[in-house]
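Batch 3, record 17
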Amino acid sequence: MSELALDCELVTQVLERFIREELAKFGFAKGVVGLSGGVDSSLSAYLAARALGAKNVTAITMPYKTSSPESEADARLVAETLGISLLRIAITPQIDAYFERFPEADKRRRANKMARERMTILYDQSAALGALVIGTSNKTEALLGYTTLWGDMASAVNPLGDLYKTQVRQLARHLGVPERIVAKAPTADLWPGQTDEGELGFTYEEVDRALYWLVDMRLRPQEVAAKGFSEAFVKRVWNMVRQSQFKRRLPPVAKLSRRSVDRDFRYPRDWEA
Amino acid sequence: MAESVCRARLVQFAPRLGAVEANVERHHTALAAATEAGRELVVFPELSLTGYYLRDLVSQVALTPESPALRGLAEASRHVDVVCGFVEESPTCDLYCTAAYLSEGQIRHLHRKVYLPTYGMFDEGRYLSPGSELRTFPTRWGPAGLLICEDLWHPSAPYVLSRQGMDLLIAISASPLRGVQPGGPEIEAAYARMLDTYAMLFQCHVLFCNRVGVEDGVTFWGGSRAFSPLTGERACAPLLEETYLDVDLDRSDLRTARLATPLLADERFDLTLRALEKISRE
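Prediction for the assembled complex:
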């Protein structure tokens, strides 16, 4: 674990400034966070409240009829602790109306549809509030592709995108996110009993360390295995990273003109002048 | 005869990306305050007039040394010496990451960044041309050398300046934060170790001005510093914050250090040169 240990105070300062400055550059002082009651979105809410002030942060919880009541209770606990306003927008009517036409849809289609439904609500509410969407995706799920493209990955700024899941927990504890939220089994909460680690077949402790050696330290898979992982596990992790690369890139544009968007038309995002 | 004490100020601030006019204004405000406070040398960070992560903006923000922006800052240098950073456009339309030394109403020296990092998170070689000269220049406090960020990671650069009698190394930087394990940023520790070593081995004062702020998700860490060859780190600005750091550099430190340990006098430049020539012929 020590290779993933954080200077939590420094990281907090960096992320607070990141949220405040990246919003300010686009003329915004307010943020919305989709708050599930899990550790990632709770940490984003804590950081946003510190960066922008509680009155400038709105949390939105968007349960489906199968979502666990504990998740919503945890979301309420975070909002109350921080003194940020909490909006509850259930997604059951529109999800059920849609899948009434496609009753054969499997769990994955339903899960992705819900993630994207929540995304559209966050973006719409951010427009209503004059705010930007603050992201809640961590580095582990981005690297593994354990996430819905244009769904939970979507945001205007993402303070957690370079923190592994176990680092999210460290920082959450440091900032005082309630222990029951930090310690509970991570879940997308799409059906009863679902857990990330159950679905993935490994723990975040294991995979974060493997990813650290593969990605941050650029070790080859066989070198990572020598650090005490099974070769099959490392190979599987690296394959997940490779196969989900498309989720971390914008769609390719067919190059035709002399200067094409995002190939040779290269401006910073923070383009002021 | 060089003056004995250099009253320097390092202005650790966050230039606005691509907003040259606003940044020039910011320089003038800082220079007026520094003059008022009796400072004699004011150092701004790398690309202080333009911001760092420019990409295709480089050609839009490029300035010639004759531009009104630089002429105006040179004008302000009648009261206080100035080091600032900008994108320089040459007569042949080459673009450089340049540091200017301004004094007594004139541009006294231009240093074009020699080492453009183009690896990992850096992409400078794509947008800029590398400089090809390492020269010291005279100041009121003796010969000075200018280096920009990545230049510092090649010890041959301060070595070449040292051989020209460098008393003061002025290093300007836009160094991104990375490495956040307990105990402070990895990159800050690396710079502190490197610059302290340069002050000790090249027996010169070192001024290091690093920017702060966030551009496209990248945070610049600040932590500007000054080093003496005699006493090591003299002063250190906080991380991440816009601030300035005042430090008075005393020339007697150079004399004491050099008399105690005559590293510069003993340096076998001829030997080094012959060895390098031999290697380069092989």
